[in-house]
Protein: Prephenate dehydrogenase/arogenate dehydrogenase family protein
Amino acid sequence: MDILVVGGAGAMGDWFVGFFRERGWSVDVSDPDADESVPVERAGEYDVVVVAVPIEATADVIEDVVTYMDDGLLMDVTSVKREPVEAMRQAPDGVEILGTHPMFGPSVRSMRGQTVILVRERNGSVSERVVETFRDAGANVQEATAREHDEMMSVVQGLTHFSLISIGGALERLDFEVEESRRFMSPVYEIVLDFVGRVLDQNPELYAEIQSNQPVGEVHDALIRSAEELRASVEEDDIDGFVDRMLDAARGYGDTKSALRRSDKLIEANVRGYEELHASVGEERVLRHVYSGNVHVGVVRDVRGRKVSLDEDGETVELKTENVELLSRDEAREWKEESLSRQERDVSAAFPATLDEDVLEDVTASSHDDVLGSEVIDVYDGKAVPDGWTSYTVRLELLEDGEVDGAVEAVAETLEGMGGEVR
Structure:
């Protein structure tokens, strides 16, 4: 399919450009900030037009786009739904309409496990294909009306963003040393503090637009009233009143036990990652920076406090533990296979009996992590080997990352362990 992403030079627009291109679809961008921009007047030439512009501009851009479309699919990826969907309804009857809200930001590498909310306004074959593409990518697809979406988002986004930004504002008013406080933090404090920082690191205009374009007035009032009531209980030393309000909140929340278990898993995941880093001292590991995406490969020399030191190509590199992701062994191998150059080496060994070549290839290929493949390229039983013996030469495909000699030695040891004599 041919896709046009209006606003494709922005963070979320660019994410969807990459998403659709990875699936083999032809994608163009209409954006004045793009290196190559298609005029929006050509929107009618595409099977799908995706509007990915700031919230306050979305309705106006949609109203412009619909004047150039007669068929195909028109969809948006905006955090609010009623106004964009209403604007898309102005499109000709032959245009399919799909309101879309990806519940993740552009820092997410994959749609797998992420929630995508859909408002199916005008369904058809093209929109069905896009929805199936989301599902195939592992998305948790949920459907709602535009009104249901915005009312739910007034709490899901409106309340959570408002409260986290308020905590950040309180820390600023207190002139509180956030980094210094990490020396004394509990697991819960660390998680809450990181979520505050996560929100504060985002585009403030986007968060202001979300608050301004959702029905959050009643939600804000409820939060402020609850805070004032708790404050009054504390000021009046009303322990029973504080307890009652907390119990009332727990009853209103519902299944607090499941929330406790889920948050325990989050805490345990943080602890496991840190413990695995400690256990990796002296080993080569692959770390990926969660923000820049840069990958560091080296021997872990030390993990102290909130820093990990790597010996990377003879240089010491220090990284903050909270900024890096430790790739699993399988993930590290996959990254190496995709990113590192390769070379071939041949190893020969003679055996006093004939061997199954498929078995020989499988065994040698699994003898070292950096052996990507092994192929028997020569079988010889001439004068250069003793009578009754057969020599086999295997060609190894190796990752070229400093472990080539070690991988070749490991293969030679494997062959000798099988009763062979390396030639």
